[in-house]
Structures are given as structure tokens and as C-alpha cells.
């Protein structure tokens, strides 16, 4: 009876994590697309300074992580010092800024699809720089994802979708997404190195350190001189309170989503988190197509299915590898 109750609680917690991640990030995607395509006020102005969203996100997540540390963490935990995050803070400032600026040039579904191909630069760098040889199934995953993204990029986008973009330019948009992935790769590798050196570093410590440096870098970039874009973004928000409210909710969604990601990883492992976030991306594309008026052709939907088939196969390979490791441990 106790085992049944524990199993039920585990299922309920997992359902809560799925609902939390999906609702937070799907709605954040809707707001991101709104801020990049909507014309605000009677003057019909666009919010051109999309990278300002990263500064706002940094500030909200910095405050959020500080509160969480004060509530949950014990003092003197022996985690990584804040100065250790200065270098990943740089790439974590530049990379996401490029990814969000891409929305000026390509549609939201195209951006989500492009940013789902993180395995491609990782495998490319692993092969060319470190001489790593991957198994055939991993190359199949990479081929499905790369083939789906590249074919989607080559297919003609509907005129309705193009008309909503600030500056339609597909090559530039996809280039920014690819550079975003490259910077993310360095950020993730550096974070792994930091947690290896300081094993007691918690997820909240990482969130605090990354957002502290991100806030400082973005403040310097956006407000460091009289013509900084931060002043224009703040002025736009004053003139259009609706945009300011969307930005605040956007940031809050990011902080809440991080909360559920940490909970998922701690309770169910990184594989479960990868599965939830991958399916969330697919649902985000569906929501964008249905609610935001970004119609996809049959061929484009075929590309979407191709990409997520590759990602699903990758998740299956990780699950199978995890099962084998668990069997070996039991045997030992």
C-alpha cells in the first residue's frame, strides 16, 4: 500500500513538472513571438530591441535565484564562487541575444526548429576538433535533424508569415540561430567544468552566478553610453505599457520554467527533462501555427516531423544506454 502511494505521488509530481514546463515555456514562446511581430499603440510601432528581453530575464532570474537560495540552501554550502561564472556569463549573454534577434528575420517556428538542432554543432566540433567518432545511430539522428532544418529553410515561407517579420532575411536568421547554438555549447561545457571543480554547486548557485554576470554585461552594453539601446527600450515601455507587461510576464515564465526544470532533473533525471522540453518545442510550433497565424505547408510539417523524429530517436538511444548502465551496476 505504501509503495502504491509513493508511486502515485511520483506520477503526480511528474505530471506537475510536465504541466509547469509546458505552460511556462509555451506561453513564454507566445509572448516572445508577440513582442517580435506585434505593432503597439496607435502609432503602430514595433518593439525593435529584442535583446532587451535578455537583460529583463537576467534581472528577474537573478532576484528569483537569490530568494530561492535564501529559502532552501544552507549557508556555507561550498559551491562555486560567483567570479567563476564570468566567462560562461559572456557567452550566455551573446548567444541568447543572437537567438532572440533572429526573430526579426525568420518566423518563430523556424527559430524553434533551428535551435532544436543543438546536436549538429556539438558533433561537428567533436569530430573536427577532438577527432571523436560517433556511432551510426547518432549520425542517423544528426542526419534527420540537419535534413529537416535545412529543407525547412529552403522551402518557401507563406506571404502572411513574412509580412509579420520586421526584416525578413532567412540566411541571416538561421546564421544567428547557429551562432546561438555554438555559444550555448561553450556555455554548457564551461558550466559542466565548474560543477566538476565545485561538486557542491547547486542549480540555484549556477542560476545566480550566470544571471549576475549576464545582468552586468547587458547593463554595460545597453546603458554604458548615451546612445545605448536600453534607454530606447525603456522609453518604448513607458509609451506602451502593454509591451512592458508582456516583458514582465515573459521573464516570470522563464523563472518559473527554470524552477520546474530543476525539480524534474532532481527527481527524474536529465533524460526525463530532455523528453519534456523536446515535446514542448513541438507543441510550441503547433501553438504558433494555430494561434499566431503562422501557417505551415504540408512539406514544412514533414520537415518538423523529420526533425523531431531525429530528436526522439536520440532520446531513445540515451534511454537504452541508461538501461544498459543500470543492468551493469546490478550485475556488479
Automatic annotation (TrEMBL):
Keywords associated with the record: Antiport, Endoplasmic reticulum, Membrane, Transmembrane, Transmembrane helix, Transport
Membrane topology: Multi-pass membrane protein
MF GO annotations: antiporter activity; UDP-galactose transmembrane transporter activity; UDP-glucose transmembrane transporter activity
Superkingdom of origin organism: Eukaryota
Intracellular or extracellular location(s): Endoplasmic reticulum membrane
GO cellular component: a single term: endoplasmic reticulum membrane
Entry protein name: UDP-galactose/UDP-glucose transporter 3
Transmembrane region(s): 12-30, 50-69, 136-155, 247-265
Family that this chain belongs to: Belongs to the nucleotide-sugar transporter family. UDP-galactose:UMP antiporter (TC 2.A.7.11) subfamily.
Pfam family, one: UAA
Main location as per UniProt: endoplasmic reticulum
